[in-house]
Design goal:
By secondary structure, the protein is of the alpha/beta class. Helices cover 36% and strands 19% of the residues. The chain has helices at 16-30, 74-81, 95-107, 134-145, 156-165, 190-199, 221-234, 249-258, 276-280, 297-304, 336-344, 347-361, 366-384, 401-408, 444-451, and strands at residues 2-6, 34-40, 52-55, 57-59, 67-69, 87-90, 111-114, 150-153, 171-173, 208-212, 239-243, 265-269, 285-288, 309-312, 327-330, 412-417, 421-428, 431-439. Helix 3 links the parallel strand 6 (87-90) and strand 7. Residues 14-181 form the Glycosyltransferase subfamily 4-like N-terminal domain. It holds the Pfam family Glyco_transf_4.
Length: 452
């Protein structure tokens, strides 16, 4: 099977969506499929990537480090058509997602969509929440999902939200698999980890809590920083290591300085995906106050690396973070000092929670993830084979390019023209938006039209 994964975010960006796409692609390739990843170009990429197709893009002014796709030309469409995709799997609702949907209509390819992001938690990025409301985000999400052949929800939390929004398409709950081999503690020697700690200014003997991911408002990293003074009362020399980057970093650094925590909070910046497994080993405990997660991949990765987790209570984490077995779930920041101290001040508890975390993560295999998605692809493709009623565009005679421009009042380009059919791509400033196809008999008037 030839599979196209369309995503607005991918490596070198480190986030849950990019990780999910990469994991799925690898799993599907092991099942014998050809997988192509379509994603925006990135100036940080200097080498060719196997089966990763970088589309023209520009920086997204509202989110630092994020890029959006630009106009996609008929030439790009023709190039992709030669890949003979059997299924299009969109992982975003914006530029690459819209492009994937357009390709689906143009080339008559079935689609599956994974809903990764709870947009009601992100409307503050657009005009500080004054332009797009949560209800508008819900309506947009519903509209996009209802146009797919089927929808994947990574967790029941996402499933329930989409159902509430009014999504009528079949929704399958398929958790993203974790390649636990990448994060195992045994991959790294103690000397290697101690050296990395010293490089970032961390004493190897200091107890350490860790956050890894985007530094964004919805991640609520400030909640953990504000709790640090109380945590230090219970745990001597405690350090908080923050791995990642994002728009909130300047504000978080100001907060650290205002609380006189410069010696206790360390920002490492973003790190390459190939080294992420090693950076998880900087911590004894993973901690997060985010409630915007749809699947909590960083929590799962941390646990695969043997780190207990303390997280704010969230439905998507209830099957991952098991209280008093793999960590704790808190409701208010006031609970944090006792929870952190219970794990870090007792070596036996830390060891037991660490072993439990590794055991729980072994159940989320990449193989099972790829198998379930593969089965969904097959069912969607089979459903698309059923006959559909279509309404043809009726044109009294073969139009010339000039006539089409006059009728449609926007630029139109003839892409293919043969003896029996002609196809017109209606263009707008955003790219190809619709396809018109007119079949005709080779008559005198038709031949004259061809000559024009």
């Amino acid at each position: 099977m030839n599979i196209g994964l369309f995503t607005d975010t991918y490596f070198p960006q480190i986030n849950g969506v990019g990780t999910s796409v990469h994991t799925l692609a690898e799993g599907l390739r092991k099942r014998g499929h050809n997988v192509y990843i379509f994603t925006p170009s990135d100036p940080k990429i200097t080498e060719d990537e196997k089966d990763v197709i970088r589309m023209p893009s520009m920086p997204f002014f509202m989110v630092k480090g994020f890029r959006v796709g630009l106009l996609y030309t008929p030439r790009a469409l023709n190039k992709i058509a030669h890949l003979k995709l059997d299924i299009i799997h969109t992982q975003t609702e914006f530029s690459l997602g819209l492009f994937g949907r357009m390709l689906s209509k143009t080339l008559n390819i079935p689609t599956v969509h994974t809903y990764h992001t709870m947009y009601v938690d992100y409307v503050h990025y657009v005009a500080k929440g004054n332009l797009i409301t949560p209800n508008m985000a819900k309506e947009f999400s519903k509209s996009f999902c209802n146009k797919a052949g089927a929808v994947i929800a990574p967790t029941k939390k996402v499933y329930d939200s989409l159902t509430e929004y009014g999504v009528k398409k079949d929704i399958e709950i398929i958790p993203t698999g974790i390649n636990t081999e990448l994060f195992k503690r045994s991959n790294f020697s103690k000397e290697e980890i101690d050296k990395l700690k010293e490089e970032i200014g961390l004493n190897p003997k200091d107890p350490t809590i860790l956050y890894l991911g985007r530094l964004a408002q919805e991640k609520s990293i400030d909640v953990i920083i504000n709790a640090m003074p109380k945590l230090l009362e219970n745990i001597e020399n405690l350090k908080f290591v923050i791995v990642g980057d994002g728009p909130e970093r300047p504000e978080l650094e100001k907060l650290v300085e205002s609380l006189n925590l410069n010696d206790n909070v360390i920002f490492t910046g973003a790190k390459p995906w190939s080294e992420i497994g090693k950076y998880y080993q900087l911590g004894d405990l993973f901690i997060s106050a985010s409630t915007s997660e749809t699947q909590g991949l960083t929590f799962a990765e941390a646990m695969a690396g043997g780190l207990p987790v303390i997280a704010r209570r969230d439905e998507c984490l209830e099957n991952i973070v098991i209280p008093e077995k793999t960590g704790f779930l808190f409701d208010t920041p006031e609970e944090l000092p006792e929870m952190v101290a219970k794990i870090l001040n007792d070596k036996d508890t830390l060891k037991a929670y660490s072993e439990n975390a590794i055991e729980v993560m072994e159940e989320l295999s990449v193989e099972n993830f790829a198998l379930r998605v593969d089965e969904l692809y097959a069912s969607v493709i089979e459903a698309e084979k059923q006959p559909h009623t279509t309404v043809p565009l009726i044109i009294s005679k073969l139009p010339t390019k000039k006539a089409v421009r006059r009728i449609k009042k926007i630029p139109t380009k003839v892409i293919t023209k043969g003896k029996r059919a002609v196809t017109f791509f209606k263009m707008s400033r955003y790219g190809i938006v619709k396809v018109y196809k007119k079949e005709f008999k080779t008559t005198k008037s038709a031949k004259e039209g061809n000559e024009e």
